[in-house]
Amino acid sequence: MKNKEGTPLKDERGFFTRAYDKGKQLFTGEESFEKKVLTRETKSLLINIYCIDQYRITQAQKQIEKIIEQETLKRTISDETMAKFDDSQVDLIIQMCRHEDVQLEINPGIITLQGLKGDVAVVDGNIRCMFQEIAKQEKIEAEAVALAKDMQWLYLDGESYEKYPPLVNRVIENDFQKQKKICNVTIGSHQYKIRFDFSNPNNSTEEDVRNPTNKVNMKRYDNKTKKNTLALPKDWAPMDGSAHVKLVTLDSSSKEYNFVQQKFKVTATGNQITKIDRIQNSKLYKTYMARKEDMDQKNGSKNNELQLFHGTTPDSINQINTNGFNRSYCGKNATMFGRGVYFARDASYSVRYSGPGHLGGLLLQSTATVGTRQMYLARVLVGDYILGNPSYIVPPTKSGDILYDSVVDNTSSPSMYVVFNDTQSYPDYLITFQ
Predict the structure, then answer these.
(1) Is the pTM of this model over 0.85?
(2) Which of 154, 240, 265, 328 has its CA 20 to 30 A from that of 115?
(3) In what order do the strands lie in the sheet with 182-187?
């Protein structure tokens, strides 16, 4: 893309390449990473203890030490999101620790906080909010890339039309869909006004806020008319209005129902299906298909996808249906092969992780008293995989800057797959069973 004058080009490397580069710096200590330590200011407090004998002095000293121990806390934070922290975010953490008088140590992949319990809790909460914001931004970026494969806005640069960056394109298309007459966008340090022509989008214009007379023509290119890669499945039921999530209960006599049931019954012979819902989530599906397209191109094949099972609990179902599989609420039960989202080849294995009556695969109630439980049959992009390890928070390096796509329990005959990116799986069917 030709760049507008005075606008720095966005890093066009893939997200995973950028994440790897930063991850290599923070998690392996390579490049220019240096251990950062922020010590608390040493403050002295002199306590004089007066007692009638040495025994009572010793007891008083122990009691004081116990109070100090109860009121102080040392907390270690280890999260793969740290691989995406930039220097400004690291500096922000340092400033927070100084403000709260918390001792800080940053090693590759690990943040250690030490201080009064309340102060440590404040800093810890703020850091976890930073993790959530990064995850939110990743999701927005993935949706923007998926949208650009469907619908792309272009601007006239000299004699040729050039693409808007995915995030800017997302803002323009969203405002167009909302029928806003004017859309305000920022590209680099420049601000622009987009004036839509809804009768003919190709007559829309962009004007520079600094110089309103400087206008350029725009086009709205519908990629769906050229290729149908990200089109929604033809067998999906119509979606209601602007809603992007819909659950469709399958007819027990349909081929689709029987297909899912047969896969379930291969190993879960002692369980009875009571209902199967198809999860229709247009945003998740398009994001997933965009990721699949990228992986197919990267790996030079289209054999990167498997249908796998994932046991779940009632409190996670709405989150998964709406936002997909997320490590923050899917990684509760297992970390044997890495800190990702786990999927099983066999439904019988996922039964152990389904419903409220389990803990880490251990049934707390008999199957007769557990009642109905749920698991997903999901589409998962396993791609190229390698043997997992409990220490993995991202897949290991395959070659150069390229990472493996997933990890498994056994490379010769995998029964368990772990993915570390939330766009690599799609919750296809929700199976309710007893």
Answers:
(1) no
(2) 328
(3) 160-163, 151-157, 211-222, 205-208, 190-195, 182-187
